[in-house]
Amino acid sequence: MDALRISSIKRKKPISVLVNGKKVIAYQGEMVHAVLLSAGYRVLRKTRNQKGRSLFCGMGVCYDCLVTVNGVPGQRACMTEVHDQMEITILES
Ligand code: FES
Fold first, then answer.
1. CATH 3.30.450.150 fits 12-89, yes or no
2. pTM for this predicted structure
């Protein structure tokens, strides 16, 4: 869903990742969270009290953006660079 991206930014090579098994277009150098936001995902996980969490600090401090990357849980989406064919698992929203 490139409609949510800023079109004037020059991007690197397009790649694809899987988000909950669905193919999503990304670009080399992007962080996981940017890819998820551009694909329309907003809630990435829930707390014990079932409160939705997503990007908060955007710089690796708050741990609100935790996702599972290539089967490894607890990865910060704001600090993890995407790679071709990366498998990302988030809460279904
Ligand atoms: S948004 Fe705070 S650690 Fe990722």
1. no
2. 0.88
In this predicted structure, the answer to whether residue 93 has a pLDDT above a threshold of 50 is no
75 Cβ partners below 8 Å, 6+ apart? 32, 66, 67, 68, 69
pLDDT digits (tens, 9 = 90+) for 29-79: 999 999 999 999 999 999 889 999 999 999 999 999 999 999 999 999 999
Q: Is the CB of 40 under 6 A from ligand 1?
A: no
Q: For strands 22-27 and 72-76, give the pairing.
A: unpaired
26 in contact with ligand 1, CB cutoff 6 A: no
Contacts of 18 (CB under 8 A, 6+ apart): 24, 85, 86, 87, 88
**Which atom of ligand 1 sits closest to the CA of residue 55?**
1
The full set of domain ranges for the chain reads 12-89
